[in-house]
Design brief:
Helix 7 packs parallel to helix 8, helix 9 packs antiparallel against helix 10 and helix 11 runs parallel beside helix 12. The strands form three sheets. A five-stranded antiparallel β-sheet has the order 2-1-5-4-3, sandwiched between helices. The chain has a five-stranded mixed β-sheet with strand order 7-9-10-12-11, covered by helices on one side. A two-stranded antiparallel sheet has the order 6-8. The protein is of the alpha+beta class. It is built from 14 helices and twelve strands.
């Protein structure tokens, strides 16, 4: 932006300067030419009194030498009767004859200058032609210096305009960069990001609008956190009731599994309340996908055995660290496995596979159920064909995208749905 403003100012000022400079240069040259011819005319007219009162060659020569042009050998007198020339002549006989025939003042161009011819009628000498020679350097005297002065003024004006445009551009660019930095900070989660209101009036309005928007977002996020925390806290009462009911189940694998599930749910509620209250970013220092898969399959295997579901796990013997919090990865995997148990009949086979690649690891959950009929609809947040919340696949998708990966749903080799969470490695 700053460079563009400077280039526009440079082009516009240069065009304006040239539009004035070229005519002025022509005027200066013409003025110098006319001034030189006017001086030649004055020098020729200075001989008129002497030529009108004398016929003597000696007196005519003396009159020529008394003038400045005569002292510089640039003045001559041509007498027709008798034919004679006094002083230093720069024309030919043919030129002289043409001047006598013309009988009026004229100029004659020569390679080395201009000759001014002034005819004069006298009673004693007939037609007298006074010749004044102006050399080329006299015709252009002072022109070059004036041109350089005009060029200097034009360059100065262009430089000043470019400097002014650069300062204005720097001011606008600084304000724009400030806005960009504020937007970048807010995009990274810094809700306290504000920008300094500066620059042109339009950018000042943008800065004020940005600060107002940031303040509004901060209030909305704070309110949302409070609502999440309050709703999560309200779950404590039914959780307490579940824990009391679980204690009445006695001992056994089923009772222990129920108590473990309720305790896990309570831990998740505590984490939600803590995150909502603090407003801190989740821990994304990294987690081993293989470890999480092994741990969660231990939990889900008990329910799979009760429902006589054959299951396999592959690729979980090799570690794969991804930039994701353990709780987020656990929630995503549980949502995918929960969908298998919820939407496929008992006894349906499922498999969990880790596919290791150079820069990512694919967590694949597939089953032998009926599959997903409308994949596009299923991937929409809140969309469900089975009466659920419709958030399971969206939780997995957001977890995958937070690492720079993606989520893909299609039909797998087992015949049912295949969900692939492609997670970028650390």
């Amino acid at each position: 932006m700053r460079r563009s403003l400077v280039l526009v100012a440079l082009a516009a000022t240069s065009m304006v300067a040239l539009a004035f400079l070229i005519p002025l240069a022509i005027v200066v040259k013409t003025s110098a030419y006319q001034r030189a011819l006017s001086e030649a005319e004055k020098q020729a007219n200075a001989l008129t009194p002497a030529l009108l009162i004398t016929r003597k060659p000696q007196e005519i020569r003396q009159a020529i030498r008394s003038t400045r042009y005569g002292g510089q050998q640039r003045l001559a007198v041509h007498v027709s009767a008798p034919s004679a020339t006094y002083g230093t002549s720069h024309i030919t006989a043919a030129n002289l004859q043409d001047a006598q025939n013309l009988a009026t003042a004229s100029t004659l161009e020569r390679p080395d200058g201009v000759v001014y011819l002034q005819p004069l009628a006298t009673s004693a000498n007939g037609i007298v032609i006074v010749e004044a020679f102006v050399p080329h350097e006299q015709l252009t005297h002072g022109v070059l210096g004036t041109w350089w002065a005009l060029a200097g003024v034009a360059i100065g004006l262009v430089a000043v305009s470019v400097l002014v445009a650069d300062r204005l551009g720097a001011r606008a660019v600084k304000a724009t960069r400030t806005l960009a930095e504020g937007a970048r900070r807010m995009g990274h989660g810094d809700l306290s990001a504000r920008v300094q209101v500066l620059g042109p009036p339009e950018l000042k309005e943008v800065g004020k609008a940005f600060n107002a928007m940031a303040e509004r977002v901060r209030h909305l996020v704070a309110a949302e956190r409070e609502v999440v925390a309050d709703l999560s806290h309200r779950l404590r009462t039914p959780l307490t009731a579940l824990l009391l009911d679980a204690d009445t189940l006695g001992r056994g694998p089923g009772a222990d599994r129920v108590r473990e599930a309720v305790q896990g749910l309570e831990r998740e509620v505590d984490e939600i309340i803590k995150a909502a209250r603090s407003g801190l970013e989740p821990d994304t220092t990294g987690v081993d996908v293989a470890g999480v898969v092994r741990d969660r399959l231990v939990f889900w295997s008990a329910l799979a055995d009760d429902q006589e579901r054959p299951w396999t796990i592959r690729g979980a013997d090799k570690p794969a660290h991804v930039p994701l919090a353990r709780t987020d990865l656990t929630a995503a995997l549980d949502s995918l496995l929960g969908n298998v148990f919820r939407y496929t009949p008992e006894g349906t086979r499922f498999a969990v596979t880790l596919v290791h690649q150079a820069d990512l690891v694919a967590l694949v959950v597939e089953d032998a159920g009926p599959g997903i009929t409308d994949v596009e609809h299923a991937l929409q947040r809140g969309a469900s064909g089975g009466g659920s919340t419709g958030l399971g696949l969206d939780i997995a998708r957001r977890a995958a995208e937070s690492t720079g990966g993606s989520l893909h749903v299609d039909r797998g080799p087992l015949g049912g749905a295949r969900v692939q969470m492609r997670l970028r490695r650390l």
